[in-house]
Amino acid sequence: MADRDKRDTHRCRDGVTRRGFLASLGVGTVGAVVTGCAAAEPEPRGDNLEGLVPCHLEINGRRHTLLVEPRWSLLYVLREKLGLTGTKQGCERGECGACTVLVDGVARYACLTLALEAEGHAVTTVEGLVVDGQLSAVQHAFVAEDALQCGYCTPGQVMAAEALLRANPAPSDEEIREGMSGNLCRCGAYDHIVKAVRRAAAARVEGGLK
Amino acid sequence: MKAGFGSQQGAAVPGGPPGTPAESSAATWGETLVVGAAVPRVDGWQRVTGTAVYPLDLQFPGMLHAAVLRCPHAHARVKRVDTSRAARMPGVRAVLTAASPGADVPWYPQRGKGPTSKLFDPHCRYAGEEVAAVAAETLFQAREALAVIDVEYEVLPCVAEMEEALLPGAPPIHGGGNRQNETLRYQRGDVAKGFAEADAVVELSFRTACEIHTPMEVHGSVARWEGDTLTVWDTTQGVFAVRDALASALGLPRAKVRVISQYMGGGFGSKLGLNKHTVMAALLARATGRPVKLFLSREETFLCVGNRPPNRLTVRAGAKKDGTLVALEMKALGTGGAYPHMPTSAYLVTDLYACPNVAVEEDNVFTNTGPGRPFRAPGFPPCAWALEQTIDALAEKLRIDPVELRLKNVPSVSQQRGGVPYTSTGLAECLRRGAEAFGWKAARARARGRGHLRRGVGVAAGMWGYDGEPRATASVSLFADGSALLNTGASDIGTGTKTVLAQVVAEELGIAPERVRIEHADTGTTQYAPASGGSQTVVVNAPAVREAAQQVRRELLELAAAALSRPQEELRLAGGAVVTPEGTAHPFASFQAFVASQPLVGVGRRHPHPKGKVALPFVAQFAEVEVNTRTGEVRVLRMLGAQDSGRVMNRLTFESQVFGGIVMGVGFALTEARVVDRRTGTVVNANWHDYKIPTIKDCPAELTCLPVDLQDRECNSVGAKGLGEPATIPTAAAIANAVYHAVGVRVTDTPASPVQIAALLQRREG
Amino acid sequence: MIPNFRYVRPTTVAGVLEELARGDARLHAGGSDLLGCLRDGILAPRSVVSLAGVPELRGIRELAGGEVRIGAMTTLREIASHPLLRERYPGLAQAAGLVASPQLRNQGTLGGNLCQKPRCWYYRGRFQCARKGGDTCYAAEGENQYHCLFGGETCYYVHPSDLAPVLVALEATAHLLGRGGRRAVSLERFFLLPSQDFQRETVLEADEILAEVALPAPRPGAASVYRKVRERGSWDFALVGAAVALSRSDGVVEGARIVLSGVAAIPWRAQTAEKLLVGRRLNAALAAQAGAAASEGARPLAHNGYKVRMLQGVVEEALRSLA
């Protein structure tokens, strides 16, 4: 966990950080009125964050700096502040999986993750899977197997499948069901989801698609 | 007086509006190239990449966020609302209450009696009724402002249970007692005589729990005014229904209201009509001059946007020794909650099986609970749960195989509609082919196991009773480069409507479906289509789209025939070209007359239902379960759905719908129930943790979709019947029958979770 | 709606304890329970103290002599997949793998799992119940199908943890750190019944943290298992669960612990059933007999009588799997 200590540099009075924040205003994402940083005097042993505080996020390989309230979830920041609405909001309490993202490659509910918690970690959202306009193996398989209906849970399902296959490139059907069991689909696309993950696993193993 | 809104009955009510064209329909296709194929969704890319924009994703410059204050009591009278503190809270831009301009909108109409409530009714009849709304710069600020609205309630005695609502002295929910209407009765023949003639009679009583739709995307709207014109992005299954009701609620001309819902995260019937929160968003947007976004929280969606009402059903069935049904009787009690809603259906009892003597009584009471709305085949799954288990018990009593008993009683006409023949009826074939493919006989005869893990198989059948609104318009524009624009008002609620309609265009015009761009579900720019619900979407819209494409096709062939000096009948369209019998392909763009006059435009309409006949879908489903007799756990190991929905328009999306219907039925059978605290009348499980919809691990590991296409040439010009509803109607009953086969315990109440099965097993063993 | 709070990220245990000492603070481990409690107004602390930056609370290590220590911040996923735990304490790994959903196991921690707030729907809902300072327990006369069979008195919730019963069965010890230093409490005594303390679920003081859990080296012939009954394939807490830890010599049971989840506000030991096993060889008949004995003392409420049979069946199954 040594890398976590690096976050101590992300303090309000850090001039570099402030400049980073101001730069991010250019994309028009921070709607709140900025009143300065309430945590101007960080404590010696760690961060003491109150009011609107700077937050440094790495999302899909890009760094973002913005002001957040400590209570803001990663989901809220992705959707409302960064415009990354591919990550869906379903329940805001970890009961559906629509907001599944990868944090350091591991599937997590963005609604139950504070934005500040994601500092120092690499976040991947569904927007990060398409490379050069090409669908990932999982996305391609979801289309081919029709592993969706209304599509609202789909980005979360895709991210859960991505996490599963990164950890277990050749899962059994039972492992697929277990790995995908943190994502609800009210349309009931589950059977096709199993087939899609199976297909994606094969495509990845054959090396054609990532 | 304004009509009032919120009846939410749109899709399931037969009988169409005027303006229906009268020509006869075109013959259906014989062989098809694109229709019926496993074509991936035309919008699959958008849906898997997160680029599909759902209403909840929208942001506009200057947009405010709104939230609704709801009555926490099941029954109360609002004496005073003080919003002065809330109005001064940071970021608050507007507060809306009953006293606000434009907020006096009638709501919840009751047939023959007019509206029963209004947008903000001081008489709150269930926990979750709207009391006030706030718009603020952020959602946090809006919610924080709600917390400081001071409301004085006079808390009234409440009644949450339907039986208690009928007791003398029960708290009156509306003036005139708690019966929503007089007992509804249906009778044919003489049931007393029928039962007297029967060799075997079975009577069972059932209860089905209240089921909540809980689509993945919560309900909500974004409202934006430009002058006197209102645009609303809504999570709805039917933009036109919302448009009409909203225009009326706000006193606006219909042309000044535009409702858009292109991607939406599921509805299942809960998103058919206008919602109160949509009106509130529009009023707040008008008050502030800013766009307003108002979405419910997940918890709110369990309270105030509908449910499948709880039912208590008693079914009595009598048959001769050979299995011929001679009498059927059902008594039903249901509650549509605090406002008018038909909570039960006896349709299956009256029409699924041939039976000369049938009697039905349906009672409907008000309770202090959230109002019902149509939910995927309204009333049918509860009715199937009761009827199909009773038929199962009758088969046992008669020692006849349950499939054989059903086959013995397949009707050829709709008895409920006075003997009208069906355009096609696949009930017998669904049962026969389904049993064959499932391995029914062998599975039924197989030992059920002697240890604590018992296996059983069950069957249930069903049909859907609505054949769709006879009105829809579509237009198709074909360009000389072989691409086409399809314009239809239909919503694609996840069933693949866009893809299927693109296939129809592609089939007629000889182009690839991906060359078809679709403009849809926008009252400002697209043609009328009824709400997507009630299994009518393809049935109603595909014929209109086909007719539009056929017009274009005729025009193109005319022009090509002239240019090539060949008879039209010789020419066909394929690969974006006009092809001669010799196989020479002349690309569309090679016809100067086409290039000069492009696009070719066709307008098509839905034709009336076939005269003197009715087109309805049928289904039989088979289930195999494993029951743990120590713990009461039930696993559905496999299911097969044999579906007579006419032509399979798209093999992929057809299968998706069937499996989705089965999964929803698994939830209805095994895990789902709204739980209301009896004393306070409030829902205790208004979240997805305590209200349990199936996960991937609850979905049967083996699912089979068996389309039974009888090549119906009469139902409409595409040969397809409805699919969404029938796919979920018999599922729960088939599972319950399989449980009975496995362990000999009749599960009369939903959900058949271990909570209930363990108790039943315990009771059986004393 | 989560109310705002002050977020503190200490990097040492001392820093954490100092923050707790300032009062009105709650710990943030995985956050899966905390954020829900904040959202539902169950907790409304002024400060939330992150444990994520404290490395010494993480990890699984073996001490000389075979004792295994699991840091409170170790995730459920790590516990479920850890080779040493799977080999020596299979019941614990099983239990961790049966918690909630994959995503929640990636984020949920051992400490958070043991220190969850009660999962009663009245407590979590908008009811001013006795536990929240009101004057009535709504569950006592209300919708109590998920409530307790044992030890209910004025409050009838069941402890939501799957790990707790296994750890009690394995005779684990909780190591707590406070400003006064370290103290060790047997897991069995870590949890409190409402009759022992109406406000707290564990013996943790407001300025103390759970630092790690110690598992004694397994005895020769040791075996453990956890069996959970739930309504759905994931997310659900146990309707009833049974953790069993046995030690055997030449097939004869020497020590037995049977601890139930889903039936009491604490992991509930079925001591009569345990006693039946000692000195005997485990077989199907004995498993059934012990299962029947496990429900001794059960006092069902109006809607949870099914749990009696279910717990008998679950104990029988758990024992048969070790026979």
Give an overview in words.
The complex is a heterotrimer of chains A (210), B (766) and C (323). Chain A is α+β, with helices and mostly antiparallel strands. Chain A is built from six helices and six strands. Chain A has helices spanning 15-24, 74-81, 137-144, 154-167, 173-179, 190-206, and strands at residues 46-49, 53-59, 62-68, 100-103, 106-109, 122-124. In chain A, strands 3-2-6-4-5 form a five-stranded mixed sheet. The longest helix of chain A has 17 residues, at 190-206. The model of chain A is unreliable at 1-45 (pLDDT under 50). Chain B is an alpha+beta fold. In chain B, 26% of the residues lie in helices and 24% in strands. In chain B, strand 25 (577-579) and strand 26 form a beta hairpin. In chain B, helix 10 packs parallel to helix 18 (731-743) and helix 14 (497-509) packs parallel to helix 15 (537-564). The N and C termini of chain B lie far apart (61 Å). In chain C, helix 12 packs antiparallel against helix 13 and helix 13 (284-293) packs antiparallel against helix 14. The mean pLDDT of chain C is 97. In chain C, the strands form three sheets. Chain C has a five-stranded antiparallel sheet. In chain C, strands 9-10-11-12 form a four-stranded antiparallel sheet, sandwiched between helices. Chain C is an alpha+beta fold and 323 residues long. Chains in contact: A-B, A-C, B-C. Chains A and B meet through helix 3, helix 4, helix 5 and helix 6 of A and helix 1 and helix 17 of B.
Topology at a glance:
The complex is a heterotrimer of chains A (210), B (766) and C (323).
Chain A: H1 15-24, E1 46-49, E2 53-59, E3 62-68, H2 74-81, E4 100-103, E5 106-109, E6 122-124, H3 137-144, H4 154-167, H5 173-179, H6 190-206
Helix pairs in contact in A: 3-6
Chain B: H1 44-49, E1 64-70, E2 76-82, H2 84-87, E3 92-96, E4 106-110, E5 114-118, E6 123-124, E7 130-136, H3 139-146, E8 150-155, H4 162-165, E9 184-188, H5 191-197, E10 200-208, E11 220-226, E12 229-234, H6 239-250, E13 257-260, H7 276-288, E14 292-295, H8 298-301, E15 311-319, E16 325-335, H9 347-351, E17 358-365, H10 380-398, H11 402-407, E18 413-414, E19 420-421, H12 427-438, H13 440-445, E20 453-463, E21 473-478, E22 484-488, H14 497-509, E23 516-520, H15 537-564, E24 572-574, E25 577-579, E26 585-587, H16 592-597, E27 600-605, E28 618-628, E29 634-644, H17 651-670, E30 702-707, H18 731-743, H19 754-764
Parallel strand pairs in B: 1-14, 12-13, 16-17, 22-23, 29-30
Antiparallel strand pairs in B: 1-7, 2-6, 2-8, 3-7, 4-5, 9-17, 10-15, 11-12, 11-14, 15-16, 18-19, 20-28, 21-22, 21-27, 24-25, 25-26, 28-29
Chain C: E1 6-10, H1 13-21, E2 25-28, H2 34-39, E3 47-50, E4 60-62, E5 68-71, H3 76-81, H4 83-88, H5 90-97, H6 102-107, H7 110-114, H8 121-124, H9 138-141, H10 163-169, E6 173-178, E7 181-186, H11 187-190, E8 209-215, E9 222-229, E10 240-249, E11 252-261, E12 268-269, H12 271-277, H13 284-293, H14 306-322
Helix pairs in contact in C: 12-13, 13-14
